Amino acid sequence: MSRYRMFAPSVAAAALVLGLGTPAHAAGKADRARAAIATAEGKIQAGDAAGVGTLLPQRQAEARHELNTAKEDLAAGRKEDSIAAANRASAIAEAALGEAAKRKEADAAAADNQRAEAERQAAEAQRVAIAAQAEKERAEAKRASAESDAAIAQQQTAEANARANSANARAAIAETLAAQTPPASAQVETTVTTETKPVARASTARKTVKTKVVRKAPAKKAPATADRTSTTVTTQTVTR
């Protein structure tokens, strides 16, 4: 009995302390719930500004649902549930914001790659166009050279034809004149050839008289010759 009496004041004191401290503790939870709700709202708004609603609309809607649940729990006095719901909303919004940032970075990198590829393709297309233009110019130069050669060959052919026509015309005129000119009368040409040959004359004998003085007989002279002329007549008929 004495023990109960001794314990009763202690229990009463503890109850008094708990009774006095309960309203303050409850007020602290409400503030914590409001702070958690404000934090969740800030993160969701940041996600909206960052385009999370466009990139991850389902995640953003889930964060808003948890935020609304936290507000409803706080209004109903379920402060612990409100704090938990607000924290879930903050976590969902923060995760969605981070994922959206990563997606944006990936999209930016992809855009940079696409832009670089487009620039490379444009440079390649320009190079191909320049090469095609150069090839076209070379082809035009070859075509112009071929046309010039063809014109020169055509001119040479025309000149050759003109010379051939002129020669044919001269030949035709010559044939016409030959046909119109009567044949010339026959003429006789006589060639006289005169040949002179020496003719031996009769020699005259001489007598040698011997005397006392012996002398050599004079040398005999060669018989004198006489010229003989023969004439050859050659007749040739010439037609003019």
Short description:
This protein is 72% helix and 12% strand.
Helix tally equals 4
Q: Record the strand order, biggest sheet.
A: 1-2
Estimate the helix proportion, in percent.
Answer: over 70%
Query: Which whole number gives the mean pLDDT?
Result: 78
Whole-angstrom Rg: 75 Å
General description of the model:
With 240 residues, the protein is an alpha+beta fold. The chain has a domain at 19-117. Helices cover 72% and strands 12% of the residues. The chain has a two-stranded antiparallel sheet. α1 packs antiparallel against α3 (57-75) and α3 (57-75) packs antiparallel against α4. The longest helix is centred in the middle third of the chain and has 102 residues, at 79-180. The chain is rod-shaped and about 180 Å long.
Describe the structure using short key phrases:
single chain; alpha+beta; 240 residues; two-stranded antiparallel sheet; disordered N terminus
Blueprint (SSEs and pairs):
Blueprint: H1 2-50, H2 52-55, H3 57-75, H4 79-180, E1 186-200, E2 225-239
